[in-house]
Design a protein that fits this description.
Length: 220
């Protein structure tokens, strides 16, 4: 975080005067601080939460697949589909709304920061009402874009939860089918369902962590 802060600040310092003229100082500071905090969250979720969960999910799938190949194929395919659909939802459905909301957030905070830092200049032109109207308008735009982002995140979460429910039904149905065909004992079915309960718990955690990762991934 320290290195990122210093490097980004050094880069900003060396940007052209024209760039600084067309970008609010407050918005730039907001993006810098948000990016540094996002990197901290990003590292935590990736290395402490998602990677260990991935090892558990892959290991459980292999264990089931060794004993019951058809169940292993179903679990492996379902996990791959869950991850791919989740990433597709993030990239194509959530990311556009998140970027617009982040841009609006940067503009709003930039206006507030610059108006406060230049308060003497604002007072000299008696522009308090004008600045308040501008901030009010930008806050309304930020609110609208943020609500859109929240709605899309909630919709994506519902789709992910629905996939988990379907996978739960498929696993229970497959276990009962194996038992009826004589390929598995009641104890085996219990083992399959219990193992899936572990997988389901990690998938729920992964779904939650991926959704928590969105603000960090989309912080610009």
């Amino acid at each position: 975080m320290r290195l990122l802060t210093v490097n980004v600040f050094s880069h900003i310092q060396r940007l052209s005067t024209e760039w600084h003229i067309h970008n609010l100082a407050g918005a730039t500071i907001r993006k810098l601080s948000r990016g540094v905090l996002a990197m901290d969250l990003f590292n935590y979720l990736i290395f402490i939460e998602l990677i260990p969960s991935a090892f558990v999910l892959i290991g459980a799938t292999i264990i089931i697949g060794v004993h019951w190949p058809i169940v292993g194929v179903i679990v492996g395919t379902s996990l791959l589909a869950f991850v791919c659909i989740t990433l597709l939802l993030i990239q194509k459905y959530i990311y556009p709304a998140a970027k617009v909301a982040n841009d609006a957030d940067a503009v709003l905070n930039g206006s507030i920061s610059d108006a406060i830092s230049c308060n003497m200049l604002v007072k000299s032109f008696a522009s308090e009402s004008k600045e308040e109207a501008r901030v009010r308008s930008e806050a309304a735009a930020w609110r609208s874009h943020l609500i859109c982002f929240w709605h899309r995140s909630s919709t994506a979460g519902s789709i992910q939860y629905g996939m988990l429910v379907v996978l739960n039904g498929v696993m229970i149905g497959t276990g009962l089918w194996l038992w009826q065909r004589g390929y598995a004992s009641p104890g085996d079915v219990t083992y399959i369902i219990t193992t899936y309960a572990i997988i389901n718990g990690y998938l729920r955690g992964m779904e939650h962590n991926i959704r928590s990762l969105q603000p960090a991934a989309f912080s610009e």
